């Protein structure tokens, strides 16, 4: 059985979830930034009314992309905080699991 702390947290399982979430956020961020970069590149070749309208729409998208990236940052922070909370709970023996009579409880170490 994989190493577990006193709460029963499986370190590898937590790491797998955190990694999957962070990779998903990274992929979403990359897609948003690629779309934004493409829109900014296209506008340079346009002239007249179509240029003006495209600039307007591209600026709106640029702001939405910025807002999405801010939300991705907040989501990443929440993931890191949740991981820390779980690990700290496990290491502290939350819920009375604590150390066994024969010695200290196993420590869960997660990699960030």
| Element-level helix/strand string | HH
Determine the strand fraction and express it as a percent band: under 5%
Percentage of residues assigned to helices: 55-70%
Structural class: mainly alpha
**Number of helices in the DSSP assignment:** 2
Report the major sheet.
none
The dominant shape is: rod-shaped
The number of E-state strands comes to: 0
Q: Could you report the average pLDDT, rounded to the nearest whole number? A: 79
Instruction: For the record, give the distance between the C-alpha atoms at the N and C termini, rounded to a whole number.
Output: 22 Å
User: Under the CATH scheme, which class of the domain at 11-83?
Assistant: Mainly Alpha
Contiguous uncertain segments of 5+ residues = 96-112
Q: What is the name of the CATH architecture of the domain at 11-83?
A: Orthogonal Bundle
Radius of gyration: 23 Å
Q: The CATH topology of the domain at 11-83 is what?
A: Helix Hairpins
Keywords, please?
112 residues, mainly alpha, Helix Hairpins
Summarize the structure.
The protein is mainly α.
Secondary structure layout plus pairing:
Elements: H1 11-43, H2 48-92
Helix pairs in contact: 1-2
Structure description:
The structure is a single chain. The protein has 112 residues and is mainly alpha-helical. The chain has a domain at 11-83: Helix Hairpins (Orthogonal Bundle), CATH 1.10.287. The chain is 70% helix and 0% strand. It contains 2 helices and no strands. The protein has helices at residues 11-43, 48-92. Helix 1 runs antiparallel to helix 2 (48-92). The model is unreliable at 96-112 (pLDDT under 50).
């Amino acid at each position: 059985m994989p190493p577990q702390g006193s709460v029963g947290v499986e370190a590898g399982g937590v790491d797998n979830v955190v990694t999957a979430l962070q990779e998903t956020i990274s992929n979403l961020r990359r897609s948003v930034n690629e779309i934004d970069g493409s829109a900014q590149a296209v506008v340079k070749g346009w002239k007249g009314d179509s240029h003006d309208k495209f600039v307007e729409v591209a600026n709106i998208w640029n702001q939405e992309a910025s807002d999405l990236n801010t939300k991705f940052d907040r989501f990443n922070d929440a993931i890191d905080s949740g991981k820390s909370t779980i690990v700290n709970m496990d290491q502290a023996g939350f819920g009375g699991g604590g150390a066994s009579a024969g010695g200290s409880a196993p420590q869960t170490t997660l990699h960030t």
